Amino acid sequence: MIRALGRRALSLLLALIAASVVIFVMLQAVPGDPAAFMLGMNASEDAVAALRAELGLEGPLVVRYLAWISGMLGGDFGTSYTYRVPVAELVSERIVVSAPLAVMALVLSTVIAIPVGLIAAARRGGVADWGIMGGTQLGIAVPNFWFAMILVLVFAVKLRWVSAGGFPGWDAGLWPGVRALLLPAIALALPQASILARVLRSALLDTLDQDYIRTARAKGLSRRATVVRHALRNAMIPVLTILGLQFSFLLAGAIIIENVFFLPGLGRLIFQGITQRDLIVVQSVTMLLVFAVILVTFLVDLAYTFADPRLRRR
Amino acid sequence: MTQTLKMSVAAFALMASGAWAAQDSIIIGMQLEPPNLDPTGGAAAAIDEVTYANLFEGLTRFASDGAVVPGLAQSWSVSEDGLTWTFDLRPGVIFHDGTAMDSADVVFSLNRARAEDSTNAQKALFAGIADVSAPDASTVVITLDAPNGNFAFNMAWGDAVIVAPESVATNATQPVGTGPFRFVEWAKGDSVTLERFDAYWGAAPALTRATFKFISDPNAAFAAMMAGDVNAFPVFPAPETLANFDADPRFSVIVGSTEGETILAMNNANLTDVRVRKAISHAIDRQAIIDGAMFGYGTPIGTHFAPHNPDYVDLTGGSAHDPDMARALLAEAGATDLRLSMALPPPSYARRGGEIIASQLRAVGIATDITNMEWAQWLEQVFRGKDFDLTIVSHTEPADINIYARPDYYFQYDNAGFQALIETLGITADPDTRTTLLQDAQKMIAADYVNGYLFQLAKTGVADSRIEGLWQNAPTQANDLTGVSWRAGP
Fold this sequence. Notes:
The complex is a heterodimer of chains A (314) and B (490). Chain A has 314 residues and is mainly α. Chain A is built from 13 helices and no strands.
């Protein structure tokens, strides 16, 4: 167990190093000089040169890479070219929007998917199953940005229950903050819930065919208890895998959703960073997201061992 | 349960009061967020859209009609030889941090802008300054290398605002100026909030609070306006929805002009034959582009000059839509099978307009290879690298016909006659002579078919119909809130 964990940690480290090199090299290859972009069309050559020097864009590639990495290790993510404030400060401002949004979407999709998946599996072939299969198919097919726009038109423009977007900040209180994230979280969660429900249904159907289910039924357990106590637990492995994968989809989806709802989150920060050639922001935030995804994958691996005791012995 | 109920009731009450009661505050929508709030350290138009006339002021300023009027200087005089400009500063001007503004601040600001290591985006505005001195606390004397009839105009730009040495280092994030509003908060990615500055030297604005909210997605901008989250969107990014707002009595649509000459720029170093450039100009149907790409908003132009400028000459007739003539010119020049690259930056005038122009060019036998680019890439490859045949861009700087006198400018027009003309213009102060020179300049570049002149970019905005005093036109990219107020009544 310990050795297995060590091996996983080592591969995690190697993945991080590889990712950092790829991110750094790719962003160097992106056309467009940040300094020239910032100063625009009328800028003189010496003003651009002065700004390049000020931003630390001069010097050999390897030196700049090492400076970036060693800074990151010490918690220094660099200074944003355009905003002129530490990237760490920008990230901490944005993560208080993005992280709650991702968590809300994840919780919401799980809360929707588990009962829906259970019902579909229990009523296999019935009307409820057909309805759920059709509904989830639609949920997967509908692009989330389109769904988000429909939500805005209905709930913000027509009904005026919520504002069309924006984020008041947590200083304004818990409820206004949660309220601002509600529609975005629903827009993000719907496709995920659909996928999750379908995966759960097929995983349940697989386990329901197993001998131990028949045994449980034979010893007198009710249908409901059998599904919840035996089938659900054994169907959790594929569900956990999907949940882990969904985390990275949520991060990617947030880039679009944050634009639709003009939320000041990490996704919009990256988007803006790319168009404004604020490469240090793109570089550091992407690295942070890679780290988050790798970490979640690692945690999901750990969670397997809780869901399935057999995996602990390996 | 009762607790949550109470909370939601309170939240609703809070929302309602924000939406209806506050008639002395305003929420302005903007598509792009400023990268920083220091107008002397970046080119982004969004910086001026927040700070110009609100937070920062210069010696002179632009009025809503584009005229140059006194700013921090209440008057100025020019010496006989045109080399010495004396500015008489307004008394009692205070920076938002409480320090007084005097001639030392002006000397500091101008010397900083023209210094060797200056990162001012419009450094050329200060290039002719030989010396700046302050004989006393309320007088500034500026000596120029050569007479410059445009100097008061140059000092009105957002890049020439007066800053204080004590606060200059933090202006990017904590701007301290002399304007009628002071900076309160910047929730990055979301909004910038300003508050009325009570110690302002001039008339107090009607608004006590102003929030600039950043909404980049056009659909989101539409929803935010419709839902009442934003009171005004002076440069509205979704022109296709303007008809909806026009039909709705809650909103007014504000259509004005900008300083943006939108052109099909041609690389004169590649397209050396004037007959080919003339053919391209005649192949273009301006009205089709305005209707197809701009939803009918925009004024056709025939040269690089704003139609609302009194010195404008209408030269659109010289490059009227005439595909037959275009084909004949191409045949005469032996330019059959012409294949040109066309680089398109992100704005819709370029992306949509580019598709339309490509089909118009195809009709006269010119093939185009379109490449869509982001601004950063466009600046590097097209603007600096000059690696292009055609591109579409709006030149938003006011009165910028002098860029044609720079042979190394990206479209590479090199005409000694034009360069001499601009040089003469620079040292001419007589208004009538200036008018003649400016009109000659317009005619010269039109006759040389330097670029395809398309249209003057319109400023299309949406606002709550109860708001008064927003700028209709954009002599510079700004949201001057000093004269904005809510109309009383329902």
